[in-house]
Amino acid sequence: MTENKNQHLSLLYDISELSILVSDSKDIDTFLQQVVQSVASHLHAEVGSIYLLDDNTGELVLRATQGLNPASVGQIRMRIGEGLVGMTMDRMAPFCDGSACENPFYKYFENAHEESYKSFLSVPIGRGLEKIGVLVVQHSQPDYFEAADVMALRAIAAQLAGTVANARLMMGLQQTAQPVSTPALMQRLQFIRGEATASGFALAPAALLAPQDPLLADVPDDGFESTANAYQHALRATVDQLKELQEQLARRLPESAALIFEAHYMILKDPRFDRQIIDLIRQGQPAAAAVRQVARQFIALFNDSASPYIREKAHDIEDLARRILFNLRIEKGQGRSPIDKNIIIAAQLYPSDVLKLASETVAGIILVGGGVTSHVAIMARSLKIPMIIAQERELLQVPEGTQVLMDADIGNIYIDPSAQVRGQFEERNRLRLAATGGGIEMRPETFTRDGVRVHLLANINLLGELDLARTLKAEGVGLYRSEFPFIVRSVLPSEEEQRLVYARLFKQMAGCPVFVRTLDIGGDKVLPYLNLPQEANPELGLRSIRFLLKHRDVFDQQLRAILRAGAQAEQLGIMFPMISSLDEFEAAREAVVGTLATLQREGLSYHTSPAIGAMIEMPSIMTIIDELAAAADFFAIGTNDFIQYMLAVDRTNENVAAYYQPFHPSILRSLATIVERVGRYNKPISVCGEVAHDVAFIPFLVGIGVRRLSVDPQFLPLVQQTVAAIATQQAETFAKALLAASSLHQVQKVRAAWEKTFKPV
């Protein structure tokens, strides 16, 4: 088929017009039907269909069609990966087949009456990480669709993404499966095993953090105050609460400064927001309905923006409206917001969400049906918020207020637990707290059982962890993850904003060595405001030092901020992540040398002789370790990424997570080689990945000669106890036995023999 380009452009214009219409409509089905009719007409296709993802069931549901049996709408459902539609969503890529019914992935639905249609073209509808649905066109003629049609349909899907997501927000599309409170559901959800990502214990009522917030849904207004005076009172209460939450968050998360509720305050200062609500109330609308209507208008306006930064502000409007509505309730109840002192159950979380949760006194987080970015997990751990990932989507139907018990040490979830279960876990939690620093006096220096010195340093993610690091006598900061000042902002932080953060780091750790890792973004660590191109495989893409060397303005600005902030620091180290070649290291080191020269010319105060080191995370350094050891001042082994890249395993992928094996013979032998080779050059080397606090792994590290361990502050007591129980000669014997093992089975036998005699805690 050959299409005129003007017709495709006309189609995009018509879709844009439909996007405007939906804001005035309360019937999403009518809107979707208009879309499929317009798409089918412009592409001269006999069938046009939209399938949308039901977040409650994880299924794609046929929501509108032109050409298929209308009775099949709402009835045809497919899991992600099932059929051609499910495959399109799973791959998040277009699919075109000139004879679809012969494709092995084709799934036949008798009630659809689609057997006469040969050509099939589908494109996913998505926004960032959010999967929304699939747009499909079909034709009875074989090989009907061409490359131009694929491009046009992709453009339409991109145009639709924000509008459909916004329509779901406004019209409650995601209530297709209403939360139910049946004995059968509660029985099924009595006990759930998940994946622990941030340790801790919590027993609290459940609160659902759904894309469609219940307070913004079209619910009866008789539970809310309705007058203009009541609205003004709720507004003042909201402002006071925001100020209190901001002060609390600034204490816990100094990196945020006054940024997290900045958008809330700007919206409140916009006279259009307040005036429109007051006008609607005076026209006879209840206050709650007026707040919802104006909030939706602003959300739609922001979502339609071409700027990712502006679109992100739609979430702030939703959050602000939720807080105002909460304060409009007739029955005020307890707490400062709907999620105060609750366990949050959510289908998706971003770092900005965790920041908002941190401003409340949330008890814990359960993330349902998905993975978690490393930054979200790290932030939850740093802010001491227990977190579990669970795959049971029915958790999203747990009634609000149901008591939930989280054991985030091992990943267990109990819904409406019995008194006996509660008692057992409360006692165990008391003992756990005592064992992780609550009654343990840390010694200022750490030695093995036979007197060999081992230095314990702290991994610092957020400045709020420094107090604990000092209390537990950390000997310095072995790894400061500098990306968090970038994550908590919606724009790139300036040199001065970065300098102020780093200055607090050096001041609080005065007299101790501090090693700062330069910006490590990319992969699952995304900064939306940079608006970088999407990559097919971001873990192997433009991340970490590769990003910085390509964006020298960002790199130079950060280096200036670090060196200026550390002007008085006794020991300052700068290390580069994801170094894969000597050339990369030398290029990054030259950037530091250039920055030093610039600061000298400008006459500014700065640290004149920083140590310059490299993170060891890439397999490629194994054959150039001698050259790298000669060039760098120090090293830190980031075992998390090192294991991932050595074994080609994404440990957040449940399909292959079992292959992530720190005790794999190749990992053990590689670590031993690295430590031995670096030792020849008398260069310091530390281990800062998760194995550094693994009781089972520490004896091996000591046995191969590691004398610096850098761990999250909460693990310092455990690591000191473990090291103190080790005799180096025994550890060396253990390490040699492990290095001689050639299979995981043999490694396990060596470990089993060791564990019979080694009892560290």
Task: State the main characteristics.
eight-stranded mixed β-sheet; alpha/beta; 26 helices; nine-stranded mixed β-sheet; disordered N terminus; 761 residues; Beta-Lactamase; 43% helix
Q: If you had to describe this structure to a student in words, what would you say it looks like?
A:
The chain is α/β, with parallel strands linked by helices. The protein has a domain of 169 residues: Beta-Lactamase. It is built from 26 helices and 23 strands. Strands 15, 16, 17, 18, 19, 20, 21, 22 and 23 form a nine-stranded mixed sheet that branches. Strand 10, helix 11 and strand 11 form a beta-alpha-beta unit. The longest helix is centred in the N-terminal third of the chain and has 25 residues. The protein is globular. The N terminus is likely disordered.
- Beta-strand residue fraction: 15-25%
Q: How much helix, percentage-wise, in residues? A: 40-55%
Query: How many alpha or pi helices?
Result: 26
Q: Distance N terminus to C terminus?
A: 72 Å
Give the radius of gyration. 28 Å
What is the CATH first-level class name of one domain?
Alpha Beta
- Rough outline: globular
CATH topology of one domain: Beta-Lactamase
SSE class: alpha/beta
Can you name the CATH architecture of one domain?
Answer: 2-Layer Sandwich
Overall pLDDT, averaged?
Answer: 83
The number of strands is 23
Largest sheet: 9 strands, mixed
Ranges where pLDDT stays below 50 over 5 or more residues in a row are: 1-6, 169-181
User: Quick one: CATH superfamily of one domain?
Assistant: GAF domain
